[in-house]
Specification:
Length: 287
């Protein structure tokens, strides 16, 4: 399928990444089918899109009259069969292989043969996911950064099976969204998380070993390394459970003990201190 034939995009999952991906596609003029398993997740996702559009209006990046038009392009569904109308699909369900397997195999059986199926996975091998489908040559990684409406990078990851046509179409599609795509070959954690997660993990070790407080660790990285956000603030933003999941993927995939998740990080997850979304992580959050 050529890039010009893509008019309707389905996004599987209305969570943090899914609603952000739906936002940028709708903002770029595409019709979006946003699918999740329960109506309440869809309602929460649409509410978030609305709030993010309001932020764009306040910043002068979007006319107020356009908000309704953008939201009107997003159709929320719980029935997977509805994605059969899509010309391109992005999977953005939780970072668990068993969940992705179930969603991808079901979607694969519904989509037209020529439709590209992309995964927003942040660390799971694209080659592994592609092999779960009957369209491995039309499977690709499309890893957006959080928050999706703000961050310009998209890692476009080739599976071993990905065709040149699929890869090039996905690169072009990312550009049409106003993003900057970077070509990455399939490896655990790709580039972004292979570099970022060990940094976060080492910052947690600094806290666990009493080298410094979370505030001091983050201040050193912000003031000394010019990072806009400290690694522990960023971990709370991402979700500490997500960080642990990605570290496990890196450890299993690369086999190096340097990728073992810090015990303190795992302890926080066990306590339910998952970061911003839980109201507590390395910092506490009101509301």
């Amino acid at each position: 399928m050529s890039i010009d034939q893509i008019k309707t995009v389905a996004v599987l999952g209305a969570g943090t990444m899914g609603n952000g991906i739906a936002h940028v596609f709708a903002r770029a003029g595409y019709n979006v089918i946003l699918r999740d398993v329960e109506q309440r997740f869809l309602e929460r996702g649409i509410e978030t899109i609305g709030k993010n559009l309001d932020r764009e209006i306040k910043k002068g990046k979007l006319a107020e009259a356009e908000k309704g038009t953008v939201l009107g392009r997003v159709k929320c569904v719980t029935d997977m069969a509805a994605i059969g109308a899509a010309d391109f699909v992005v999977e953005a369900v939780p970072e668990k292989l068993e969940i992705k397997r179930a969603v991808l195999t079901e979607a694969d059986g519904i989509l037209r043969p020529e439709v590209i199926l992309a995964s927003n996975t942040s660390s799971i091998a694209i080659t592994t996911l592609a092999a779960l489908t009957k369209r491995a040559d039309r499977f690709v990684g499309m890893h957006f950064m959080n928050p999706v409406p703000v961050m310009v990078l998209v890692e476009v990851i080739r599976a071993l099976q990905t065709s040149d046509a699929t890869f090039l179409a996905t690169m072009e599609l990312a550009k049409k969204l106003g993003k900057t795509p970077m070509a990455v070959n399939d490896a655990p954690g790709f580039v972004s998380n292979r570099v970022l997660m060990p940094l976060i993990n080492e910052a947690v070790y600094c806290v666990m070993e009493g080298v410094a407080t979370p505030e001091a660790v983050d201040a050193v990285m912000k003031l000394g390394m010019n990072h806009p956000m400290g690694p522990l603030e960023l971990a709370d933003f991402i979700g500490l459970d997500v960080c642990v999941d990605i570290m496990h993927v890196l450890h299993e995939g690369l086999g190096d003990p340097k990728y073992r998740a810090c015990p303190l990080l795992k302890k926080y997850v066990a306590a339910g201190w998952l970061g911003r979304k839980a109201g507590r992580g390395f910092y506490t959050y009101a509301g």
